[in-house]
Each structure stands twice: as structure tokens, then as C-alpha cells.
């Protein structure tokens, strides 16, 4: 797909908008999204009309079965799953539905039509993230009275936040749009910038609205989606089954602007060392893992990051020296 004018250019892989023969998992997710969101809207409208109270606000009508309400989660635990399929705001419904149909089809096809993997990504990551957010909300509610435990949380961020992370993984250097012939405003916006762009917008939005729990929720979702894709996802690529994505370009550091990388790098390095070596919660990447993932990333168009191979060799030599000294 390509559109070009004097000041504006749009590019994208043709398969991104190839909707013919929508894959199975994408169909199921889209049907579930429409059905559950539609059922919630119908139930709220029916209740609003039945009560016929001029002082009643429509947004105050909730359904704990499908909406994520911390104070009622023990009675309706199914909401941890069903809340992945609802949106109560029109703008978010439109964005999520479009992203689900177009992006879900593209992702599922690039995951070798692995329907189970896409369903697992949306269901499991979304539900686990919702559980973590509920626990954090309840704990904060015990500390401060500013946290309302009877108000619904937005439990549907996996598609909005997780899919852009996958786009960065699958087509990092592909241009979404380009502004040209506009001097300093000229900009080439690639898919690798999409995750931080969305996270920046959502962060600013929730800061302005002072939605502190939702702010925590989006970042928990971001780290959960990246962690799964980075360390745990199993996919068949060619004749090989890969576990995670150990490529240099998919490091967490390279999701953030250059300005903050010097601050974040030691934090991320120490966290990786703690989780992988001291706590042994995650298997650390070996050089072979990184080299294989780099080869796959380069086939997807990712650019090499200079200096990383030399840094890995220094770290390995230092680790061997430390082991000998113990």
C-alpha cells in the first residue's frame, strides 16, 4: 500500500490491509469484541431507561460481570477475561476494532497462521495483566482513600498496546508515513516508533485526567507484552522453533528515546542480571540465541546495532573471570 503527494507519503506492507480471508483467531476475537461490548451497551441502556432518573449519570451504570471492578473481583472473577473484550468509549472501540481486524490478520499470518498463539497473547497476557492491576489497585486502596475500589477499570489494553510492540518486532524500519518538503517538520515515522508514541500519548492523557490506576495499568501491560514476546513466546520459523526474541533491536532499551537511554540502560542491565542470574526466573540469552534472533530481525528489515557484539564478548569474558575467582 502506497500513497504519495508533494508533502505527504504513506507506506505500508500490502499484507497489512489484506482483509480477504481473515484468519480464524482474528475472526473469533472480533466477533467476541462486538458481541460483549454490544451486550454491555444494551444492558446499560436498558438499565438507564428503566430507572428513568434525571439525576442518574449513564457512566455510573456498570456491570461487574464484564467490567473490571476491584471490589467485586472475588465475586465475578470472569471479568478478568471478559473485560479484554469491552470498551465503553466510542473512540477506543473504533481504534481497537480497526487494530484488531487489520493488525490481528497481519500478525496471525506472520505467525504462520498460528491461531492459538494470537488467542493466547490476547487472552492470557490481557487477563494476567488485569489480575496484576487489580491486586495493585486493592493494595493502594488499603494505603490511600483516593483510590476508588468500586469504580470500573479499563481492562482492555492488550490490543492497543501489545499489537504496536509486535509491529515493531515484525517490520521495524517500515515507514508508516513521511512528511516531506516541510523543512524542519519533515519526518519519517516508522513502525519502530509506534509503541513509544502510543505510550507517550496514553501517559500524558491519564496524567491530565489524573487517572493514576489507569496510568499504572498501561505500563504494566506494556512490560507484560514485551516480556512475553522477548523471553517466552514459542514460534516456528522455517524448520526451527524459536523461544522469545533475543535480537539486539528488540531490547527494552530501544523502545525509548535516545535522550533517556543513558539513564535507563544501567537500570535495565541490573534488572536483567537480577531476574536471569540471581533469581533465575528467566533463562538468560546465550550468544547463539542472540545471533539467530539478529539474523531473523535483519530479514525483517531491522538495522544492525553497532558495538553490541563486542559488548557481549566483554560481558562474557568478565562473567567467566568472575566465576573463576569465586
From TrEMBL:
GO cellular component: Golgi apparatus; membrane
Statement: the UniProt record of this protein carries the keyword Ion transport: no
Compartment(s) where it occurs, according to its Swiss-Prot or TrEMBL record: Membrane
Entry coiled-coil feature ranges: none
Pfam families registered for this protein in UniProt: DUF1751
Transmembrane segments: 25-43, 121-143, 214-232
Primary site of residence: membrane
Biological processes per GO annotation: retrograde vesicle-mediated transport, Golgi to endoplasmic reticulum
Keywords attached to this entry: Membrane, Transmembrane, Transmembrane helix
Topology of the protein relative to the lipid bilayer: Multi-pass membrane protein
UniProt-recorded name of the protein: ZYRO0B06886p
Protein species of origin: Zygosaccharomyces rouxii (strain ATCC 2623 / CBS 732 / NBRC 1130 / NCYC 568 / NRRL Y-229)
Lineage: Eukaryota, Fungi, Dikarya, Ascomycota, Saccharomycotina
Amino acid at each position: 500500500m502506497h500513497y504519495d503527494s508533494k508533502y505527504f507519503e504513506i507506506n505500508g506492507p500490502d499484507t497489512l490491509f489484506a482483509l480477504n480471508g481473515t484468519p480464524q483467531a482474528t475472526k473469533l476475537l472480533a466477533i467476541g469484541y462486538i458481541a460483549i461490548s454490544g451486550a454491555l451497551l444494551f444492558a446499560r441502556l436498558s438499565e438507564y431507561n428503566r430507572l428513568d432518573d434525571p439525576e442518574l449519570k449513564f457512566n455510573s451504570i456498570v456491570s461487574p460481570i464484564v467490567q473490571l471492578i476491584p471490589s467485586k473481583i472475588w465475586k465475578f472473577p470472569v471479568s478478568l477475561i471478559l473485560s479484554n473484550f469491552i470498551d465503553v468509549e466510542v473512540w477506543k472501540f473504533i481504534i481497537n476494532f480497526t487494530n484488531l481486524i487489520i493488525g490481528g490478520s497481519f500478525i496471525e499470518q506472520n505467525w504462520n497462521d498460528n491461531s492459538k498463539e494470537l488467542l493466547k497473547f490476547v487472552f492470557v497476557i490481557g487477563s494476567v495483566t488485569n489480575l496484576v492491576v487489580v491486586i495493585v489497585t486493592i493494595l493502594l486502596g488499603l494505603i490511600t482513600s483516593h483510590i476508588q475500589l468500586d469504580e470500573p477499570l479499563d481492562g482492555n489494553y492488550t490490543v492497543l498496546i501489545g499489537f504496536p510492540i509486535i509491529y515493531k518486532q515484525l517490520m521495524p524500519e517500515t515507514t508508516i508515513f513521511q512528511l516531506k518538503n516541510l523543512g524542519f517538520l519533515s519526518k519519517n515515522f516508522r513502525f519502530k516508533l509506534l509503541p513509544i508514541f502510543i505510550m507517550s500519548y496514553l501517559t500524558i492523557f491519564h496524567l491530565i485526567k489524573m487517572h493514576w490506576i489507569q496510568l499504572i495499568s498501561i505500563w504494566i501491560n506494556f512490560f507484560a507484552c514485551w516480556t512475553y514476546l522477548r523471553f517466552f513466546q514459542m514460534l516456528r520459523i522455517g524448520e526451527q522453533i524459536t523461544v522469545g526474541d533475543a535480537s539486539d533491536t528488540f531490547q527494552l532499551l530501544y523502545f525509548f528515546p535516545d535522550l533517556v537511554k543513558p539513564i535507563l540502560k544501567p537500570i535495565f542491565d541490573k534488572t536483567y542480571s537480577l531476574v536471569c542470574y540471581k533469581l533465575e526466573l528467566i533463562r538468560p540469552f546465550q550468544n547463539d540465541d542472540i545471533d539467530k534472533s539478529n539474523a531473523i530481525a535483519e530479514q525483517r528489515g531491522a538495522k544492525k546495532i553497532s558495538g553490541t557484539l563486542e559488548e557481549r564478548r566483554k560481558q562474557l569474558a568478565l562473567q567467566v573471570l568472575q566465576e573463576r575467582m569465586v
